[in-house]
Each structure stands twice: as C-alpha cells, then as structure tokens.
Design a protein that fits this description.
alpha/beta, 8 helices, globular, Uracil-DNA Glycosylase, subunit E, about 180 residues
C-alpha cells in the first residue's frame, strides 16, 4: 500500500467522533522514504483549515528547530497520533488515538520505515511508547517493536515556557546525530 491510498482512507474515516467536526483530515506530509519521522499530538485550528501538519506557531518553531539542527523540513515526514482536530484543541481521548494509530499511523510508519521517530510531547510519547514524564525522558531513545523512538518536548511547550527551548534545541541535535551515525 502507498501513502496516498492510506491518506484517501483517512479522508473518508468515520471510526471515531473526531471526523464529525473536521474541516480537513491532516494525514501528514513529507517524503515516503524519510529517515526521520516526527509525530505530534493532534492537528490544531490552522492545520484543520489547511490539511497540513504543524503550520501554526508551533509549526513555525518546529521548522526553525529543524533548520537550526542542520536538517531540512522537506526531508522529514511529519504527522500526529490523530488525523482530525479534537474540538477546542482538547487532548485526543484514548479511544480516538488508539483507533487512529491502529488504522493509519502504524501503517504510515511501516510504509515510511524511518530510521528514527521523534515523538513530540507527552500525548505522542504515551500513546506510542507508554512513557509519560517528558521532563525526565526528553532526548532519550527507546526501542519499541523494532523501531527507534526519541522523546522530545512539543514545540508548543517551548512557546509557553521559553526555558524549555534550549533543551528542545539540544534534543533536536541529538535526533539528527542518530541519523548521522546510521
């Protein structure tokens, strides 16, 4: 299966209540052969309006962090644990993200087959590797089901608490070093 086929399925998904209020499905973007995959929590308002991931203020910071670490955003595949915006930007519920991970995200990961997956924020970290304390585990890598994951602060966290920005920059450099050593 190709990413476009999976995206078409996601665009027509009605397996959880998130589809009822979406404007656009935010499936993800980036090359199908990306070495790095970044996974966030959920689309926000800007993403829902455009169908593109991480394009609001968090996305702008993410792009800067990627560039500052010597990487190119166009070479990274970026998505979220759910493909539709939860109302009022609430956290996705377990039934919602579990469904989306099972139907779409696991298949995206298989198709792309990245060398490393950066998990942006507690929701993505907990949903995919079962850890929950980002302050203790950021920058660490985990092997789960034969895949390498790295826990990262969500860019929004660095927007709200600027003291996290140096840690996020450092962790992005660690993410790049993982690729450089492969």
């Amino acid at each position: 299966m190709k990413l476009q086929e999976l995206c078409n399925q996601a665009n027509n998904c009605n397996q959880c209540p998130l589809n009822e209020s979406r404007t656009h499905t935010v499936f993800g973007e980036g090359p199908e052969n990306a070495k790095i995959m970044l996974i966030g929590e959920a689309p926000g308002r800007n993403e829902d309006e455009t169908g593109r991931p991480f394009i609001g203020s968090s996305g702008k910071l993410l792009s800067e962090l990627i560039q500052d670490a010597g990487m190119d955003r166009s070479q990274i595949y970026i998505t979220s644990i759910v493909k539709c915006r939860p109302e009022n930007n609430r956290k996705p519920r377990k039934a919602e993200y579990s469904t989306c991970i099972r139907l779409f995200l696991k298949k995206q990961i298989e198709i792309i087959n990245p060398d490393i997956i950066g998990l942006l924020g507690n929701s993505a970290i907990y949903a995919l590797i079962g850890e929950s304390n980002i302050k203790k585990i950021h920058g660490q890598t985990y092997q789960v089901d034969g895949r390498k994951y790295m826990a990262l602060f969500h860019p929004a966290a660095a927007l709200y608490s600027r003291k996290l920005l140096p840690q996020l920059k450092e962790d992005m450099l660690k993410l790049k070093k993982n690729i450089d050593h492969n």
